[in-house]
Amino acid sequence: MHSAISSIGKNLILLGLLALSAVNFFYGWFSWKDLLIIQSLTGLAYVFLSCYEFLNAQYKAMLPVKRYAYFSNSYVMFKILKIAVFLSFASILYLSNTRVKYLYPICIIIALTEGLVTYLKYRKGFCFVSIYANYILFSIDKFNRLFASEIETVEFRHDIFYFIKKDRKAFQIKLIHVEEKDVFVRSLNDWLIRNKVKIGPESGVKLRDITTS
Asked: Is pLDDT above 60 for 185?
């Protein structure tokens, strides 16, 4: 409930800020200094609500007790690219020397929020893989479940698990990004055996060698 309220609140703040800045662009109700103060204060509220969304007790209560932190390079690079895009837009708007530059603080607010939320996810272990009885839970930007019944086969090569689904879509788990690698491999191997998931012959040999060593 609190997380939902925070999400709605931050989106309303951002929409309100965009609307106010756009209207001021045409009618000039506020001076540049006054508008910047308003944008800064509402921006702080937006950042606070965005961070609170990931730190409130109710959200943390939804997280599995046993989870393996999984913070991939592709996820980090995507976030860095997203932040860079908003900062680039902010620079372009600011250097335009027109009234459209009034919108540049909004881009900075969004970029700052993305950076802080990504840092919190890393520090608090909110990006993770968790193993349940009949499915694997992935949490990156949202929760995704991979059920054992959906898997056609599993391959294990170069410290990467490849999950090939029956619809031919594939998921990967790279051990280089997993904390407690040895514990995770044993837990995942036990899960595959319990759920009678098909494992490639060579992959099965590799997993037996790892889990019995």
From this structure: yes
